[in-house]
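Researcher: Good morning. I'm working through a list of sequences from a screen, and I'd like to move beyond sequence-only analysis. For each chain I'm collecting a predicted structure so we can compare shapes side by side. This is the next one on the list. No need for commentary yet; just the structure.
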Amino acid sequence: MSEYFKKVPIRGRGSLENLPNRFEKRRYEHEDGDFVDRDGGFAPAANPANLQDEGFASAANPANLQDEGFASASPKTQIFADHSKTIINFNDSPDIGFDASINPYRGCEHGCIYCYARPTHEWLGMSPGLDFETKIFVKYEAPKLLREELAKDKWEPQPLAISGVTDCYQPIERELKITRQCLEVLADFRNPYGIVTKNHLVTRDIDIHKQMADLDGCMIYITITSLDPELTAILEPRTSRPARRLEAVRMLTEAGVPVGILIAPTIPGLNDHEVPAILEAASKAGAEWAGYVPLRLPLAVGPLFTQWLETHRPDSKEKILERIRDLRGGKLNDSNFGSRMRGQGAYAEQIKNVFRVYAKRYGFNQRERETTTKYFRRLKPQMSFFE
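Model: Good morning. Structure tokens for this chain:
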């Protein structure tokens, strides 16, 4: 890979390059023709006008990037059809709070450099780097598959997690509306769901969230990693900025939708000092539940995050990596059940204690919130909640 891509951040992207796929013997290196400086770097399938309200710079308004040393070109977002035959996935992990989930997209245009899902793109023969955030696989048949699976007698009603892997409200959802269609199906069947997102676009579907919340069938978590818009602009390039996420919390709360926030990941030496301020701001916005997850760096995410530190936080790189090792048993990652979601050691205890103290101070997690399946109904194909 050329020095250009190793040293110069790419506008609107978290990765600096495509790391080799661990399953492949050959790798593809980008040529200059693969990059454009048109429409914010989007392929025609994604309209950059749809992104103006998300709080990040576009080609028409790159004010927060033009003097930051970013490359002028950005890889095009490419969209591919995903031909999965099923949509509901099951897991038996003891430290994940759901058993079944749906993911309308593979890959995520948000471009969060720390995303634990990046290595999943290697299963598709691609890189966990730029490929993960620029080559998005869309499950166009997801709503149809979901309706078919919920209608089967063998389906046992249970809450479905949405965004268990990649964000269901990433930018292309504004145009494609796959998540919206899946939510309509869930509302038809009155099957409960929970959503985790970093995008203000979740408020577009308040009508469905409110109807399901009235049936104790909905829970929304907004991830807030920092209150610093400049940090989120490089850490999570195409997510909604912090003020927009807090606005989403406020709008959902006012609509009667139960809302929590996640400080995930909590990165020692980078954003862990913001835990009290984030909890205070989220409480004022109306969130009632809160959680946190220390940074995880599985497989290729470790090298990608290290490269990001070298580019954006060179002076504090070693301090941050050392603190990560401190809470991961001397390594950059711990994949063991139990400890992987909370960390271990003195620094992990410090983060936990700070979170607990301020979560209590600001009134979080004071009451249980569970969704229910008692309103579930197995519909015939023509019936609709919205008819």
